[in-house]
Design goal:
- This protein is an alpha+beta fold.
- Strands 1, 2, 3, 4, 9, 10, 11 and 12 form an eight-stranded antiparallel sheet that branches. A four-stranded antiparallel sheet has the order 7-6-5-8, with no helix packed on it.
- The longest helix is centred in the N-terminal third of the chain and has 38 residues.
- It starts with a helix and ends with a strand.
Length: 182
C-alpha cells in the first residue's frame, strides 16, 4: 500500500513538473516574441496607395526597429513612424529631409538646400504642387510618400520627430511575387 502511495505521489509530481515546464516554455516564448517585436523587427501591412510604385496596397513589409537607435534616417530611407497627429497610427513614408535642411518642391522636383535631388523611385510623369521652402527643425525629419498626389505627408501635417520613428522598412515579404528589398 505504501509503495502504491509513493508511486502515485511520484506520478503526480511528474505531471505537475511537466505542466510547469510547459507553462514556463510558453511564458518564455511569449516574452521573447514581445521583446523581438518591440526591439528587433516588426511587420506592417500597407493599406494605402501613398508609396506606389515602391510599395503596393496590401503589401507586407519587415521593419528593423533598431535601425535608428544611434542615428536618424537618411534621405531615401523608407521609414515607419507614429503619425504625429495621432501616435496610435503608424505611417510609412520616405525620408526626404534631414534636420537643418531646407526642402522645396518646384516644378514637381525636389530641391534640398537649393540643389536638385534625383528621385528615381517616383512614378513616371508624376506632377505635383510646389511647396516650401521650409527648414527641417533639429531632431525632426521631412517625410513624403512616393505617390505624391495620393499621400498625406509632411507637406500637410508637418515634421516627424525622431522620438516617433519606429524603424527602417527593409523588404516586402508578402505577396511572394513582390518579395524584395526596399
Amino acid at each position: 500500500m505504501t509503495e502504491e502511495l509513493n508511486e502515485k505521489n511520484i506520478n503526480e509530481k511528474k505531471k505537475k513538473s511537466e505542466l510547469r515546464e510547459i507553462v514556463e516554455v510558453v511564458g518564455i516564448a511569449l516574452v521573447l516574441a514581445f521583446l523581438i517585436k518591440t526591439f528587433v523587427v516588426g511587420n506592417y501591412w500597407i493599406p494605402s496607395e501613398s508609396m506606389l510604385p515602391t510599395i503596393e496596397v496590401n503589401d507586407k513589409v519587415v521593419v528593423t526597429n533598431f535601425s535608428y537607435w544611434l542615428d536618424g534616417p537618411e534621405r531615401g530611407d523608407v521609414v515607419v513612424f507614429h503619425y504625429p497627429l495621432d501616435p496610435k497610427k503608424d505611417y510609412i513614408k520616405r525620408c526626404i529631409g534631414e534636420p537643418g535642411e531646407v526642402i522645396e518642391f518646384k516644378d514637381s522636383k525636389l530641391y534640398v538646400n537649393g540643389t536638385l535631388v534625383e528621385e528615381p523611385y517616383l512614378p513616371t510623369g508624376l506632377e505635383f504642387d510646389d511647396f516650401g521652402p521650409v527648414m527641417v527643425p533639429e531632431g525632426s525629419y521631412f517625410m513624403c510618400g512616393d505617390n505624391r498626389n495620393h499621400s498625406s505627408d509632411s507637406r500637410s501635417w508637418g515634421f516627424v520627430e525622431k522620438k516617433h520613428i519606429i524603424g527602417k522598412a527593409q523588404f516586402i515579404y508578402w505577396p511572394f511575387d513582390r518579395w524584395g528589398t526596399l
